[in-house]
Every structure is written in structure tokens, then in C-alpha cells.
Amino acid sequence: MSTFFYIILNIANSIDNNLNFLYNTPISEFKEINARAKKGGAILSEPILKVQNLKTVFFTDDGQVPAVDGIDFYINEGEILGIVGESGCGKSVTSLSVMGLVSEPGKIVDGKIHFNGEDITHAPERKMRTLRGNEIAMIFQEPMTSLNPVFTIGDQLTEAIRIHRKISKKQAKDRATELLQLAGLPRPKALLDNYPHQLSGGMRQRVMIAMAMACDPKVLIADEPTTALDVTIQKQILNLMKKLNRETGTAIVLITHDLGVVAQMCERVIVMYAGKIVEEGAVRDIFNHPSHPYTKGLLASVPDLRRQTSRLYSIPGNVPKPGSITEGCLFYPRCQEAMAICAQKRPGLVDLKNGHRVRCFLHGEVEEA
Amino acid sequence: MLAYSIRRLIALIPVLIGMSLIVFGIIRAIPGDPALAILGQKATPEALKQLRHALGLDKPWYTQYFSFITDLLKGDFGTSLRTHAAIRQEIWPHLAATIELSVLAMLIAVVVGVNLGILSAWKQNSVIDVASMVIALVGVSMPVFWLGLMAQWIFSIKLGWLPSIGRENIRDPVTAITNFYIIDTLLAGRIDQFWEIIRHLILPSLALATIPMAIIARMTRSSMLEVLRSDYIRTARAKGQKMFWVVYKHALKNAFIPVLTVIGLQTGLLLGGAILTETIFGWPGIGSYIYDAIQYRDYPVIQSGILLVAFIFVIINLIIDLLYAAFDPRIKYK
Amino acid sequence: MAETILTVEDLKKYFPIESGIFKRTVGHVKAVDGVSFEIKKGEAFGLVGESGCGKSTTGRMIMRLIEPTSGRIVFCGKDLTAMDKKALRKTRKDIQMIFQDPFASLDPRYTVERIIEEPMIVHRLGSKAERKKRVRELLEVVGLSSYHAKRYPHQFSGGQRQRIGIARALAVNPKLIIADEPVSALDVSIQAQVINLLQDLQKQFDLTFLFIAHDLSVVHHFSDRVGVMYLGRMVEVAESSELYRNPKHPYTNALLSSVPIPDPDYQYDSEELAGDVPNPIDPPKGCAFHTRCPVAMDICRKTRPELKEVAPGHLTACHLYNN
Amino acid sequence: MLETVVKPNAPVPGPEEQKEKVDSPFREALRSFKKNKLAIIGTLIILLFIILALLAPLIRPEGYNHQLLADRLKPPSSAHWFGTDDFGRDILTRILYGARISLWVGFVSVVGAIVAGTFLGILAGYYGKTVDMIISRIFDIMLAFPSILLAIAIVAILGPSLQNALIAIATVNVPNFGRLVRSKVLSLKEEEFIVAARAIGMRDARILFYHILPNSLAPIIVQGTLSIATAILDAAALGFLGLGAQPPQPEWGRMLSDSREYITNAPWTVLFPGLAIGLTVLGFNLFGDGMRDALDPRMKK
Amino acid sequence: SSSSNGEQGKKSNSNGNGGNVLIFGRGADATSLDPAIVTDGESFAVTKNIYDTLVEYKGQTTDIEPALAESWDISPDGKTYTFHLRKGVKFHDGTDFNADAVVFNFDRWKNANDENKFAYYPSMFGGFGDKSVIADVKALDDYTVQFTLRTPLAPFLKDLAMSPFAIASPTAIKKYGDKYGQAAAVGTGPFKFKEWKSKDTITLVKNDDYWKKGEPQLDGVIFKVIPDNTARLNALKNGEIDLMDGVNPSDLKDIQGNKDLQIFYRPPMNVGYLGMTVTKKPFDNPLVRQAVNYAVDKKAIIDAFFAGAADPAKNPMPPSISGYNDDVQPYDYNPEKAKELLKKAGFPNGFKTELWAMPNPRPYMPEPSKIAVAIAHNLKDIGIDAEIKTFEWTTYLDKVKKGEAPMYMLGWTGDNGDADNFLYTLLSTDAIGSNNNSFYSNPELDKLLKEAQTLTDENKRNELYKQAQVIIHNDAPWVPLVHSKPALVGKSTIKGFAPHPTGSDRYVGVYFEK
Ligand SMILES: Nc1ncnc2c1ncn2[C@@H]1O[C@H](COP(=O)(O)OP(=O)(O)OP(=O)(O)O)[C@@H](O)[C@H]1O
Ligand SMILES: Nc1ncnc2c1ncn2[C@@H]1O[C@H](COP(=O)(O)OP(=O)(O)OP(=O)(O)O)[C@@H](O)[C@H]1O
Ligand SMILES: [Mg+2]
Ligand SMILES: [Mg+2]
After folding, report:
1. What are the CB-based long-range contacts (under 8 Å, 24+) for B180-187?
2. For A144-199, how does the pLDDT look when each residue is reduced to its tens digit (9 = 90+)?
3. Does the pLDDT value for residue D218 go beyond 90?
4. Which residues contact D267 (CB under 8 A, 6 or more apart)?
5. Domain segments of chain A: what residues?
């Protein structure tokens, strides 16, 4: 039932995107539209998080690294959005940019981030603090190192709660216990007094999830939450996230490099390559009809348990570092379907149907703006 | 933890025995005759011979070592060759003087150094960072004795703000109870005297604190930088915690662990290495006590003094190890 | 089929847990607890299992980089466990290893040329010129160019480094290659390149592989036969396709159903394994898997099941198949 | 002997593979070192002192012991930039010649400590067990002694002289390097590339000298340069106590202690030697820090 | 500094200590307060004020005046001394001072036979028990003591005035046993021992019952250890101490210009010299030794490193001691002559040698290593290349005494103001192995010195000593450098202080000007 609901929502949003209407609308109007929409009782609503043309550059000694090079995406309430891409393509920097946590020497140089209709791109630290962990929460790839080793689980959980909720320590503790239970952890009460090192990786990742859920965030950004875990544990964690998403309606941005995980979890997916979005759309569309040669290659190069192929498809060459390719399509050097134009011009995103977009000249000669 | 400490202490025994052997060996290897040192320039050869006999210096070394060790095990440091006083009684005031000085110096070094390090790391590459790191670098680069001299010259000779030497106002001596004058004056209820003690402590403790402060600041900074890059700091920030608390709560407790090692090492160094500062500031501490004894070849005093300092050093390290457990729950001593 | 090149019999490794200053042994990590299998010439034998189940330890014991606590390793008819140091060094020419971490397994101070040449120097193969020539050939074989020879490892990407590691392993014409998670650290697109390369080399040089990985789909793809390990023990051994089609052990089953399939329409078996892998210091009595096993029986808590052939060429250690 | 490889696989062209500079790790380190302003300042300071030390006989051919009692304790002037000391000797000249002593002591004592420490550290780290136990305990014991007292004792045994101060400083530093090398050997032993070397069938000795030692070099060099700084300070401290260089050698610490009685009347006699020590030590500290940043991968991203 | 004075005054009043306590700053601590067992000046400086001796040096001389003995008779053969003791004197512990106390003290030293304990007794009186010059000490009545000597001893009375022969309370000595001198020190002197903080302070308080009426005028004396000369002077300038010794000569000029401070010069009873080991080549050649004598510019050295607080020396003993030969013509500073002599001795191009310098300052030489540098520079001028070597003090003494040094610097402070204490002690053949470190031996000289020891006629003795000095001058085993007048610096309010040549001062007659 809920899946159906989401599909509808997706379609509605895709239409909006295609109209390219909302992007250029000032916030005040946005609110108006929203109000109108509510009045009319329509399910059409603005995305909870919207990123436009985000560009985050690292100003290193060896020059500028455009880790995130002008990406657009949005996520609606209650949705699970997948972001896939290989190592170094800018997935983490994207999420950190949204959180306002890009560290030196990185800087958001361009673009807009709207949360709940509000522009938070360059919001002051004070404002960001009220959002972080409260409205937007985040969990990281490494469960082993993401918890502070010298404080108890209880300390860290109650802290997460008490930063945003004016409640007593006792109440915070109760809430923490509840959260741990929600995350499916056994003996939640006893766990509060444990230190991270006394927990297994899977348990720690659950604690991280519990912590992220502490203040019922509207958006949860999960940056490769299961990469470090064994498959059986990964399954537990993924199931947990799905359950939370269903029960609390928290929108999840699921960052991963595992296409299997995306297929299992997400409704919509963004494929990133070297700091740019190369393809975007509903999971089914993309898995069934990958349009970008990179996406195609990626899908073909994953061994599938269900069949014994003699040889895997492999994309030649290496993933380039963002900024290392200055001319033409970023994928051009590895592309098997490359054309002359690919070497000279940068492709822009071409809209296919149903919000399926692809950055490739094969689908139309749209140049990057 | 108690059991662990006891086991550590037991394990110290071979180290201490090794140390005592080395100290003993070194001292006997030092040329120069204690008898001559005692009797001085005017000594006659017969007198020297007789004194050597009286002091037991003509016995074979192993006999001397054995009696030294057996006495030591009985808690007896022996008597000074020169003053004939029981070392146990003589040494304490000196040790207390040095401890008082070192503890204060270390306190200054830790408080200032850690905060300087934190600020630098927090505001990496800012003016504050560069400034405090330059200060720290200059701090480790300047010879302490020179700094001490300069401080003395400026603050007590030129400006006359602070007393230049000693632990107390000589005209108003402290009645020693614990020999920690800060405590003694308070016990005696003499606030005026207490301030006088503090005034005497300021220059030498600052001079002594310079190097450890600089080292601690640098260590804190680099350790802090590493910690600030770690995932759990990102987690803490992602919770919406204020940067101040992220730094002072989450980062510091982790970053402090390597700093702790440095603090332990430096405290040990201060105890034994205060000689120069003690000389300059006329501080009647253990360093000058031992140095004096070396000059006079006062074997029992050198032996006991160095061993005591080394022992304290080892104990400090043990305490530091136990403190690790307090800071880092991953370390468990059982 | 072909002759057996490697036989591992009841291999065990108990790491002592030392404690205190006196280094008293207070217990043991039973990293590998009685593992047996054999590998035939020209075959790729895959070893899967969750983290910490003893895969690497097994691999390293075969190279005698770790001394086994007990058990026998017979390689080409020679008992490796009984060899002295010198003989062992000689044999190492025939068994080579590829490591998981392409960043840590190459000495950062040497050029690629030197790294690949070193095994030949150690085993005194060829003249200097011959060795140089061969290095270049090897580089080409693994898909690098000979102009890469003068570079240092840090100037390569992960996939390229892994190729260098492979070239080094090939340098002395080994008979058996132990590949310990050779692709786990690599990106998806690069992973396929390396797997393909390994497969090509296997055919080209008639190599035998012990292929260790935690990713079941990779093992499934690469290996002819697969062994599944759980907590230091082998729980199932079968031909690759047989294992997927017809898993016997509940653990293998769970493992298979946990692998995310890159297909949005795939229907997952919603059952998930409860709990974590138990602590190898204190493994559960009886069948080590019974604490997480959905179909555990009484006997599983008491008796440890033996690895037995339950179908031709299909072995499993589970009480379900005891009668 | 070697079988020729037949069919080459298709090479994988990478975009960045065309013409990249081939940089050894050393060159890379050098490059990052060059970018470090403070480190460059440190290098310049050291170079300055080295040049001055080398050129001292040319700049001041009259030597460091040219006394003119009539010119005692003259304040800085155009004739004597840093003034004169109580023998009427030019302080600048003495500082120039003193640089030779300080640099020499710092360098030689540290090299001595490195050689001895590395040897012991390798023994302890690689052979482990009893050897390790014994050596480590000796290091523990040596480190438990206050180093300045230990140095004083050693000088007392050998007699006060520059050479003996040098030996004392080297000895005191041995356990530092020993421990460093030992821990480095221990950690490298677990590194995968060492495991790989063993897997190749390499002998222990070869692993030690071709892989473990070269990889321990960076921290040793870093620690070494920083130790030169402390060694110079230690030598000055010993000189200050009269246990180092003997007069009329222009050792800076000795110059300080010889003129500290003039601090009120002729402060320049104290000021300049102190500054010379501080500056040189600062130079080595800056240089060492730069080396650490350049060589220690932990400090890199 | 005046403000800090006032402040301190206030505070000390609150402590009930009185502002009338003199604080004496010095470089080292005493070793024991039992003067009989110590040999170091720092101990005597304290005991001098706790104890009295039978007779006392007068003023700043080494002449004798009554002290605990009001008067004495000497038998014509010079072998019996009868002392009439002062009546009504009490030890600080309240016990009576009387003849028995004197006998007790002398018996204690004489019969000990333990040089570890009593170093000065055997060295001044020839040994313990039967070897001692003192055959017997007995009480004739409560206040009369008779000493019987085996042979006449010319400096006997001067010896008795020495600090080690101070009379201590028998009761206290018995009571404290081994701890006497550490835990307690009980004499009859002007001040009572109160507290000793090792290596820090020794506090003496006024003895209200002192036999000399109206003395002491101070309420107490505190001896404060400040090892460093500069630091000590700073402390004085800051008003933390009142008086100090061990002044850097270089500071004297500055002090002279300071209204708040005054300088006291201790009359010299010492000699600082450059010794040559005559058994070592090339110093076995008197010409070489003379050449060295001509080479050293004493005046320049005194100007530079004594700030004038020393007299150039030409004899091995200071002029204040009777028997000094002022007719000896000094070797003047004359490098040309020195070179000539060297040439004559067969060293036209000079030679290489070592010049040993003491590591730490001594009363007769405040900055030995600097003086060594200056001397080496002088020697260089005549072609002698002398490398300066230093050892730690005990090692230095040890090696010098063993004759290992070719040239060495050393000195001597007189004990009792007698010529014998210089010439015989330092340059007789008998003294080789103890204090004749040049290993100089001249039978002619020995004969003169031996003879002088037994004479009681002052003039005849002096004649012999004058001859001796000529011999020594010609043989030139030393370069006598200086007789230093060590400076003490005090607040200008200190009155009545006159430092004594022996180096131990009494704070009797000393007061602060209001
Ligand atoms: N602090 C930094 N300084 C310089 N470059 C950086 C920094 N952080 C990230 N980058 C660069 O930004 C690019 C994107 O990094 P990011 O961490 O977002 O990749 P990712 O997609 O999350 O990869 P992974 O899957 O490995 O986590 C990388 O090429 C990286 O080199
Ligand atoms: N040197 C060692 N000392 C003690 N325990 C060890 C040692 N090496 C490995 N172990 C333990 O042995 C067990 C098996 O380790 P092993 O590395 O073989 O696992 P693995 O299956 O390769 O895991 P991974 O997938 O994480 O590589 C683990 O519990 C590990 O902690
Ligand atoms: Mg990432
Ligand atoms: Mg492994």
C-alpha cells in the first residue's frame, strides 16, 4: 500500500521537476504554493530537501578539487533516495555539504540547499546546529569509529537528545532506552552503560541509527551505513532502516556503492561519477533501462549470484579524481560508446521520461550550462 | 585495578634492582674520593685512609652494594658521608621543595599548554594557531637557564616585583610540617605567609613550566588535530552539538590520552631536571641536593637521591598508566 | 579430475590471549578450529565466511606465515608443516599470495620494477637483464605498461596496485596462488577488471587458486568449488553452482539470502539471521552456528557436527543431514 | 630459466598515465617540505649557522681567544657588534666559532645515539623474547633516570670536556632511538608488505635491511633532527654547569655561565649567547617539524 | 628595595622575630655544627657564633686575646700552659661552663683516635693520644685548667683560638651522641642554635645570657644558602638578605656606587698560586719555572678578575703574617725575559703542556677558570701552549695531589695565622703527598723550617722564615699569584662588622643602624 503511495508521490514530483518550475521559484512563492496545495488537500508537496547546482570545492595545496561539481537532487518526505557511485565520486562530500559539515579546506562555492523550504546553504552555524541531529540526521560508513570511544552509549545518546530537547537527564535516558529498543538492540537498558568497544560492529551501527533517530528527524542521511559490515548483518541493518522509514516517515538518503543495496532499498536513485550526477531516476527505470554507458557498465560488472557467467563485463580504466579531467565528458576516456563530441563538450542532463535524466550525448546533444 | 597496580609494583622490583646496580656502578666509577671530598684540601694521607676505612669504602664493592641494598630494603637510606645525618630525614624537605615546585610548574604547563594546543587545533592555520605554535616552538628552543636568568633579571632585579630566590621570606620562615610550604602556611593559618610562598614560586615555576608547556601544547595540538578529523567528531557535530563542547568534551578526552604520556614524562623530567632552575633560583630542591652530593662524592646520598627520583618517576608513569584507564575505557587493567 | 595439489587436514590455529606483564596465557582465540579441504590442480577454490571466521588465518597457515597449532598441509605431496625454514623458503616459490589491501601490501619505498623483481632476486632466478625483461613482460600481462616500471606504488590507483601485487605473485611461476580478498578493497568497476584478469591468468598459466572473499557473489563467480566457513570451521563445501542452487547448511542459506541482488524486482527471503557472530574466544558448544540458526535442534547445542558428504561432492557439517 | 610470457593482456590506459612525473617518496616529501614556510625558515637558520661556522676563520681570522683586557665588557658597537666579554674578546667572533662546537656536538651525539639505538632497537624488535626483554628493561632503566643527572654522572666519570659531554648526550639519547626503532620494527613486522616479503620467501636479514630499516628511516630522521635541537640544549646545559667544553673554547652554554655574573652590568654578554642557542635550536625544531610533516604519513591527509 | 624592607619589617614584627635579625647569604651549607669534626669554612662560620674558644683572635688580626680563659700562664720551657677560666658562664643548655667541661672536650678529641671525626686535632697537634703534642689536660680546680705539652709548640695559643677547638657542652654531647652537631649544637657563644633546614637556612637566636655584657646586639643570625653569586647579590639588593660573601669581583664596581650597600674586605690570610710539578718535564728545570713566573701578568689578572680586591703575591705567604719577607724582589711581568729564560732552558720555541684549573671558586681565587684562560694567554705569548683542563673538585684535588698535573692552580687559606702553616705545610719535603703538590723538595729549606717550629723566640723564627722565602723565590716551584681580599657586601646600615682573616666571623659588636 505504502509503496503505491510513494510511487504516486514520485511521479508527481517528477512532473514538477520536468516542468522545471519549482527550481526557479522564490521561497515565498514556494510557501504559497505549499499552502495552496495543503488547502486543496493535494498530496503534491514540496520536497523536504532540495539541492540545486551544489558545488563543493576543496582548495588543496595541489589545486582545487571540485569534489561535488554542480549536482541537483531532492528528496520528498518519507522517501528513500539512493546515491550510488564509486569511491571518491563525491557522495560523502555531498552529504556533508547538506549538513554544513564540510571541513577545511572544503567550501560550498555555488548552489542552493533548501531544507523544508528554507535556504540553509550559508545558514549561520547557530541555525545549522538546530537542524543537525534534529531535523536532519546522519550516520556514517564506519560503525567502528563513528562513536566516541571514551563515552558510554548512554552518554552519547542522551547528549543527542538533550541538545535539542529540554528534558531531564532521567527522561533522556528513558528515551535513549526506547530508541535502542526501536533499533532492535537487546538489553537496551544495560547497553546504556556500555562503551562502544564492547559492542560488535552491527550493534554499533544500530546505536548510530538510534542516535540519528533521537529527535525524529525529517531526513536521515546514511553514508554507506553497511559497507563495513558482513552481509548477514547488513541485511539486519537495511531491514531496520526500511522499517524506521515506514514507521516514522523519515526520508532517507542512502549513499552506497553497492547496486544491490540500492535495488533492495530505494525508490529513486542517483548515479554519480566524478563529482557529477550522470543518471537519475526511479530505481526500476535505471536498473531495467540504464541509459548512461557508465551505469550500464556498472550494472554489468557486478557478478550476479543467480547466474554463473563465464566472464564479467568490465569498464576499462580507472575512476578519475574529480577535477582531473578538464575537457569533454568525464566518462569519455573509459566510454565504449564514445563519440567525437564527447571529447570536446560537456554533456548536460537530458530528461528522458518519468524523471529519468541522463548526462550523455547519446540521448540528445544537451550541453552543460 | 588494585591487583594490577600491585603487580606493576612487583614488576618494578627488577627494574629498581637494575637501577640500583647502575647507580651504584656509575657512582663508584666516578673518579674522586669521598674521603678527600669530606676532608678537603688540607687532608693528610693518613686521615684519608682512616676515613675511608671508617666509611667502609675500602671494602669490596659487592659488600658495599649488599649492605646498601639490605639497608634500602629496610627503608633505610643510610647516612650522609659528609654530614652524618640520616638521609631519610635530610632528603624529604628537598624532595618536598622540588615536588611543590614541579607540581605547580606542571599545573601551569598543563593548563596553559593544553588550552593553547586546543585553540591551535580548533582554529587551525589561524593567527591564534600560528602565534601559539610559534610561542611553543620558541619555548622549547630557549635554554631554561637562560630564560630563568632573564626572568630573574627583569622581574626581580629591574622591576622588583617578585623575590629572586628561595622558597620563603627568610625573615619570616615557615614552620615546616609537611614541608610543602603552601600547605604548611595554610595549616598555620598564615595567609600573608601563604602569599609570600606563592610569590616565591611564581618565577621558578614559570621558568620550569616553559618547556613542558610548549611540549604539551604541541602534543595537544597534533593529537587534537588527529582527533578532530575522526569520525566520531563528525558524529558529534552531526548531532548539532556546539563546537565548544565538541572540542572540550568529545575531542579533548580522546586527545588527552597521548598528552597524558607526555605529562608523565615531563613530570619525571622536571623532578630530576630542575637542577638548573634550582641553582638559578636558589631553590633548596632535590636536584641541587643530588648535584651537591655528586660534587662531594657523598655516595649514599647520590644513590638514594637518584633512586628515589627514579622511583618517583616510575611511580608517576604507573599513575599515568592507571589514568589512561580513566580516560580510555578501552584500556582495562585487571 | 586432475590431481590434488593441496590437502589441508584438520588444520587448527589457536591464538593465545596473553594478559598482564607476565604474558600469561589466559585463553585462546580459536581462529581456525579443524579445517579440512583439498584443492585440485587448475582449480579455483573459494573460501567465504563472515569477518573473523578464520579465512585469512587459514590462507596464511598454508603459506606458513602463521605456524599452525596442529593439522597437516600437504602441497604437491610434501608436508609443509614438517618442513624446515630453508626448504620452506624454496617451496614458497610455488605458492604465492595476493593480498587484500593493495595499499599496504606494497613497500612504499621501492619502485614497481623492484617490487616485482624482488621475488626473482630472492629465489635467484635469471640474470639482472633477464629479470628486468621479465618484469616488463609481467607488467604487460597484468595490463600495465612497461613505462610504469619506474614508478612508486603510491602513484597508482587501487586497481593498478592490485595488478602490481598480482604481477609480483606471478614473477616466480607459482603453482598455487592464495588470493586473500583480492578485490574487496576495490571499486565495483575495478573489481570486475581484476577478477577478469585473474581468470585470464588462471587459464593462461594453468594456475590453481585459493580464493578468499567475503562477497559470496564474487566467490560464486570466480570459483569452481566453494567452502563456507563459520567461526573457524568449515560448514559446507560444494561445487559453486551446486552451492547456490542447493545450499544445505542453514548458514549458507542465510548467507545466500542476505546478498543484495542488483535487481529491484528480486524478492528477498524476508528472514534475517538474528544476532552477531559469536566470540571466537568462547565459541558456542556443539554446532557453533546454533545460536543464530533458525532451525536449531537440541543436538546442535551439544554435539559438534562433522563435515560429511551429503551429496556427491557436496559436504556439509549439519545435524539436519545426519541421517 | 625464465619462461617467457606469451599473450599480453590489453593494457589499461588511464587518462592520467601519459606523462606524470616519477616521484620517489623522498621527492614527494621534499616537495611538501618546500611548501612549509616555517620549515624553510628553519632550514635557512640552520644553513646560516653552518655557513657562519664554516666561514668563521675567514670572517674572524684572529680566532676566538683574542684577548684584550683593556677592552673588557664593552657594549655593542660598530667595532664589536655584540660587544666584548670579560677578556675583551669579541662576542660575535666567539659565537661564530661557538656555532662549530654546538653544531658538531648536536650532530655527532645524535648520529652516535642513532647508530647505537637503531642497533639495539632492531635486536629487541626483531628477535623479541629474552633479547627484547633485556634491552627494553635497560631502556626503561635509562629512561627512568633524569637525563640531565645521568649526563652529569657520565661526564663526572669521564671528566668534563666537550668530547665527554658529547658521549654523555649520545648515551642519554640512545634509549629514545632504541625505543623508536623497536616499536617501528614491531609495527612494521605486522604490515602487510612485510608479510608479503615473507610470503615471497625472503630471509629475515633481507627483510630487515631492505624493508624494515628503510621504512623506519623517516621517523628516525625526524626524531634525529629534533634530537639535535635538544642535544644542543643539553650541551649548553652541561657547559653551563661547567661540565662541557673547557675554556677558552667558545661553547655557548659555557659562555653563558661565564658571563652570567655580568648580567646586570653587561647584559649583552648573556643575551647573545642565549639567543644564539635559542635560534639554532629553533632552527632545528622548525626543520624537524617540517620533516615530520613531510615524512610522517600520519600528518598527511 | 626600601619599600620591600619596610614590608618585611612589618611582617617580621608580626612574627615576633624582630627586625633585628641579620641574614647572611652564602654559597654552601654547613656540614655539621660540631666544630670539632668539620673542616669546612661554612660550618665554622656558624659554629664561631655558637661556641667560644679558650682564647680568641683579636679584632681582624691573629693576635690572641682572652675569651673563655680570662688569663693564662706559660712555663718558661714553653711546655705547661695554665688557663684561668671565666666564671659564671653557662652553656646554652643551662649547664655550667667549668674546667671539667674543658677537660671533657679535649679528652674527647685527644682520645678518639678517629680522624674521621676529628680532623683538625691531629693535624694541629701532631696526632691522637701518645702522638699528640698535648700530653695532658687536667683541671686544677673548677676554673683552672692545665695543659702539659710534650714539646714546645710555637703557635699553640693561636691553635687554641681556632674554631675546631671550641668548647661544647659535655651534657649535650653525651645526650645527643652521634646526632650532636645535627640535631643540637650547644656552646657558650653569643648565639643559640635554633633550627637547621638542610641546604637552606640555619637559624641562630640571641643568647641573652652571653658573658660579654651588652652583646650580642642582634636578635639573631640566619645563614641562608644561595649557591649562585649573582642570585645572592640580587637577594641582597632586594633586601632578602643583609650580608653576603662570595661576591663576583665584577660586581664590586657596581656595588661601590650603590648607597644602600657597603663592601667589607676580608684581610688576606691566603695565597693563590700557579703550581708547577717540579718532577715533571720541563718543569724540573728552574729556568722554565722562572720563565713562567716572568710571563704571568698578575696586575692585569687582578684588575680583571679580582676587581682590585687582591694584592699581587711574591711570596708563598701573605704579608700580614709575621716572618713575611718584603725584601724579596718579585718576578715582574716581563715576557721578553721569560722568552730568554726559556731559550736558555733549551726551549726556544716553547713547548706544549697542560694548565689545570679548579672547577669552582675558592676564597683565594674567585674565578679560577677565567684566570687560567688569562694565564694561558700569557703563556702563549712566550711560546708555551697550555691546554686548560678541569676536573671536578675532588677529582682535581686527588689528581693534583698525585702529581698528575704539569701546571695547576691552587691556593691556601691560613688556619692560625702562623708562617709555619704556610711554608712548612705547603713546601716542605714532609708535605709531599699531602699539601706540597709541586713535589718540591729542598733539604736546605726543610732544615730552616724544622728549626723554626721549635723556636719560641719570635724574632729568630721570623729570620729563618725570611731566609726560607728567598730560597723558595729562587727555586720558583710556584708562581705566587695573589693574596685575595675576599669581599663581603652588606647593607649600609650594618655597623660594627669586621671580617676576620680566618674566614669565620662573629656577629658580636654588630648592629643595625636605625
Ligand atoms: N579534505 C579534503 N581535501 C581534499 N580533497 C578532498 C577532501 N575530502 C574529500 N576530498 C576529495 O573529494 C572527492 C570526493 O570525496 P568523497 O569522500 O565525497 O567521496 P565518496 O564518494 O564518499 O567516496 P567513498 O566511497 O570512498 O566514501 C575525492 O576525490 C576526494 O579526494
Ligand atoms: N595474530 C593474532 N592474534 C590473535 N588473534 C588473531 C590473530 N590473527 C587473527 N586473530 C583472530 O582470529 C580470528 C580469525 O581471523 P582472520 O583474520 O583469519 O579472519 P578473516 O576470516 O580473514 O576475517 P576478515 O574477513 O575480517 O579478514 C579473528 O577473531 C581474529 O581476531
Ligand atoms: Mg564516502
Ligand atoms: Mg581476512
Report:
1. B180/B96, B180/B99, B180/B100, B181/B100, B182/B100
2. 788 998 899 999 999 999 888 888 999 999 999 988 988 888 888 888 999 998 88
3. no
4. B153
5. 1-135+215-318, 146-214
Q: Ligand 1 test: best mutation among A86, A89, A94, A255, most atoms within 8 Å of CB?
A: A89
Mean pLDDT of E22-32: 90
**B101 plus B22 within the same structural domain:** no
D26 located within any domain: no
Report residue A308 as a C-alpha cell.
Answer: 554463473
My answer on whether B45 and B92 are in the same domain is no
Q: DSSP string covering E483-514, please?
A: EE--EEEEETTEES----TTS----SS-EE--
Which residue, among B235, B252, B323, would best test binding to A if mutated, counting the most A CBs under 10 Å from its CB?
B235
Rounded Cα gap, residues D93 and D57, in angstroms: 9
Chain B touched by A30 (CB under 8 Å): no
Q: Ligand 1, atom 6: nearest CA belongs to which residue?
A: A58
User: Where does the pLDDT of residue C1 fall: very low under 50, low under 70, confident under 90, or very high at 90 and above?
Assistant: low
Query: B19 and B105: one domain?
Result: no
| E392 within 8 A of B296, measured Cβ to Cβ | no
Buried b (16+ CB within 10 A) or exposed e, B200-231: bbbbbbbbbbbbbbbbbbbbbbbbbbbbbebb
Compute CA distances D79 → D83, D87, D194, D256, whole Å: 8, 16, 62, 22
Q: What is the CA radius of gyration of chain B?
A: 23
In 3D space, the residue among E214, E258, E221 whose CA is nearest the CA of residue E243 turns out to be E221
Alpha carbons within 13 angstroms on the beta-carbon side of residue B228 total 25
C223 HSE (CA, 13 A, CB side): 34
| D213 inside domain | yes
Kindly report the CATH number assigned to the domain that includes residue D210: 1.10.3720.10
Domains identified in chain D, total number? 1
Exposed, middle or buried, D26 (CB in 10 Å: 0-12/13-18/19+)?
middle
Is B290 domain-assigned? yes
Inter-residue contact C16 to C28 (CB < 8 Å): yes
Contact B15, B310 (CB under 8 A): no
Whole-angstrom distance, CA of residue D153 vs CA of residue B294 = 8
Instruction: Please identify which residue in the block is written with the cell numbers 565495483.
Output: C188
% of chain B at pLDDT higher than 90: 13
Q: Check if the beta carbon of residue E211 is closer than 8 Å to that of residue E96.
A: no
Whether residue B320 lies inside any domain: the answer is: yes
Which of C317, C203, C220, C285 is CA-nearest to residue C259? Answer: C220
How many separate domains does chain B show? 2
Residue D106 lies in a domain: yes
pLDDT at position A279 over 60: yes
Note the ipTM here.
0.81
CA distances from C190 to A313, A315, B95, E213, E479 (A): 11, 7, 66, 108, 90
Contact D246 E369 (CB under 8 A): yes
In a domain, D248, yes or no: yes
E197 beta partners: E201
C291 close to ligand 2 (CB < 6 Angstrom): no
CATH value of A1-135+215-318 in 3.40.50.300, 3.30.70.270, 3.40.350.10, 3.40.50.20: 3.40.50.300
Give the domain extent around B255: 87-327
Domain residues for the domain of D150 are 34-56+83-299
Tens of pLDDT, residues A31-57 = 444 443 443 333 446 788 999 999 999
> What does the pLDDT average to over E332-359?
92
Last residue of a domain, one of B73, B96, B124: B73
C33 to each of A84, B84, C7, C51, C214, how far by Cα in Å?
A: 39, 69, 16, 15, 19
Which of D147, D154, D278 minimises the CB distance to B143? D278
